Amino acid sequence: LRIEAAELRLVRLPLVTPFTIATGTMTEKIFPLLVLKADGIEGYAEGVMDPLPDYLEETVAGAMGLLRDVLLPQVVGHSFAHPQELARKLVPWRANHMAKATVEMAFWDLWAKSLNLPLQSLLGGSGDAIDVGVSLGIGPIDSTMQRIASHLDQGYKRIKLKVKPGHDLALLRAARAEFPAAHLTVDANSCYTLADTALLQQMDAFDLDYIEQPLAWDDIHDHATLQTRLRTPICLDECIRTVDHARKALQTDAARVVNIKVGRVGGYANALRIHDLCEAFAVPVWCGGMLESGIGRAHNIHLSTLPNFTKPGDTSSASRYFMRDIIEQKLETTAGRMPVPQGAGIGVTLDLDYLKTATLSHESITA
Ligand code: OSB
Ligand code: MG
After folding, report:
1. Cα 168 from Cα 187, distance rounded (Å)
2. Would you say which domain of life the source belongs to (predicted)?
3. Rounded CA gap, 299 and 304, in Å?
4. Of 3, 15, 182, 303, which has the highest C-beta tally within 10 A?
């Protein structure tokens, strides 16, 4: 399959409500949207890096430059028999996993469409819907209790609460008092250190399914140490950016659960290997989110249909995030289940009218 041309956009979508995590507050979602073209078909993907390097080190500005100047010129005008071949071409570049994933994921969509098959079947997934939970940002305890109640009422399968120092134990005490049987987890986005071990041990009292990424974004070793002192399983997010990171975390018992974000790990080739490695270690995985538009959300849904995605993911209804999405389909849950978009590839199509309104910049790359 020969990639004839690419379109690279920078897109901005206002968020319905600000989203606050330990590292800051987001009020809008700004992301690169990539279209790869071949034989009258288009493949789509979005980049999940943030404007500022506060979740991981990649940035939107850096990724736009790398895509435009380095990665897209390496693939446009070139033929690839399958996505693994394209992925191999990007391996020599250090890190920049999210930028590489953007190209690789768009090609998976293009390739699946060229074969007239749904992406999930090429990835090894099955089923027509996935279990999902929600990730609730940091806010006042009383309004968080109302948001938990309303999402449990909507049938979401798990509630993940964002925590940070000073907004942790009191929040959990309140949540457990009001929702004794709820499937609860917390996500710290790397805001604690081993010096907080005593505080983190107190979280063992709240029957959390796991504690996500309590310690530094690049420190697997400290997580292994912490796990020896905690009953609650540790789930790693930021720390797992390569297959080797996953191997090291599994070998050292630093992660008893893994959050897979296909963008964070550089694309599907690595996501599939991490999925399989975790399965071999009997470690369950789930699909995280980065407040994606419908394009990234559809990708996440297809990935979540693989067999070791046994815990509910973060891919909740698009209407929780955006007034209007850039795709024509509505990605909405019923009773905590998100249907898999039907059709070839990721199964969604762009709403070109709204995309135009939401586009900050637009460029074409030809061979
Ligand atoms: O750590 O999983 C995270 C959002 C932005 C950056 C990091 C994270 C998140 C979320 C939200 O938790 C997941 C979603 O609802 O898309
Ligand atoms: Mg996380």
Report:
1. 10
2. Bacteria
3. 9
4. 303
Distance CA 260, CA 238 (A): 10
Place of tokens 């975390």: 249
5-116+349-366: which CATH number, 3.50.50.60, 3.30.390.10, 3.40.710.10, 3.40.47.10? 3.30.390.10
Ligand 1 mutation pick, 210, 299, 314, max ligand atoms within 8 A of CB:
314
Give the per-residue pLDDT at 214. 99
pLDDT value at residue 111? 98
Inter-axis angle of helices 97-114 and 83-90, nearest 10: 160
Q: Is any ligand 1 atom within 6 A of the Cβ of residue 187? A: yes
DSSP bridge partners of 134: 159
Spell out the residues 6+ positions from residue 35 whose beta carbon is closer than 8 angstroms to its own: 6, 7, 8, 9, 42, 43, 44, 106
* Closest approach atom of ligand 1 to CA 320: 15
pLDDT value at residue 2: 98
Q: Does an H or E element contain 124, and which?
A: none
Which ligand 1 atom is the nearest neighbour of the CA of 238? 1
Q: Phi/psi at 195 (nearest 5 deg)?
A: -65, -20
Q: Pick the ligand that lies closest to the CA of residue 16.
A: 1
Q: Which atom, in ligand 1's list, is nearest to the CA of 259?
A: 2
Gap between the Cα atoms of 215 and 260, Å rounded? 17
Cα–Cα dist 61/59, whole Å: 5
Give the residue extent of every domain in the chain.
Answer: 5-116+349-366, 121-339
Residues in the chain predicted with pLDDT less than 50, given as ranges, are: none
Ligand 2 centre and the CA of 210: distance in Å? 11
Q: Ligand 1 pocket, 135 CB below 6 A? A: yes
Residue 345 CA to residue 110 CA, distance in Å, equals: 7
Q: Determine the distance separating the centroid of ligand 2 and the alpha carbon of 235, expressed in angstroms.
A: 9
Provide the β-strand partners of residue 21: 24
